[in-house]
Model the fold of this input.
Amino acid sequence: MLLFKPSMAAQSLPKTLIFSSTQSPNAHRASLDIAKSMVMTERTATTTTLAPPQRRTVSASEARISLVFALASQASSVSQRLLMDLASETAKYVFPKRFESRNLEEALMAVPDLETVRFKVLSRTDQYEIRVVEPYFIAETTMPGKTGFDFNGASQSFNVLAEYLFGKNTSKETMEMTTPVFTSRTQSDGERMEMTTPVITKKVEKQGKWQMSFVMPSKYGSNVPLPKDPSVRIKEVPRKVVAVVAFSGFVTDEEVKRRELKLRDALKNDRQFQVKEGASVEVAQYNPPFTLPFTRRNEIALEVEKKEG
Done:
């Protein structure tokens, strides 16, 4: 008997392929051919299995297209956020809030749906109403010139306060506007404050100068960001009682003077309140410049106190 040690491949062959010397030459050659064929098949399969996968090369044009799509997707996301913010801010002006009205003129007035000073109406007549106003903080600057409502002077003061509100402060915070700039209120680097209304314009009797002030958002309390511009001052306005008259249209020095005199005369007949000694007129403007004149809300106010006895 011829002894034959099979290979690893041959060990897995069927027993019929393990041959002996008793086989015929033709059968022997056939067995060898089958064995070789199976070994070659096994090696080919092993080579195919162990071959490392080939990575597909991305062309420069494909890379550019992928980048464009990624940037477009990111830009779309940013645009959607900006549109949402814009829609939110626009809604405050498109859907304004209204004060309780005493007549048709006041019924047509509207103010942006922004934060404003907190107050409670104590009494109301056909000519004015008495309010108790809660404390609030303001950013104030002195207006140039001798008049309070000339376009150049008002614009200059407004811009100074706006720069402070929108980031020119030690905290570099951008604050949202309010109503009243005790004309108006809303939200760069840092947090955004809402702007308030009104803008307040107040005459300094002794100096003959006018002050313009923005109402600060109440969420800051006494921790209002400090201005970098020395012409801007931060002040707390204490709780006070005021007599208020509302009117529409554009504010002029002549209109303010006329309405102030009329309010002072009306208060002489008030049974509970009188004008506080040394009180000066204060003007609140609630609307942005693009507001139609007949829908604008303006107010003049005089601080009052209860009559003795």
About this structure: The first strand starts at residue 115 and ends at 116. The longest helix spans residues 60-94.
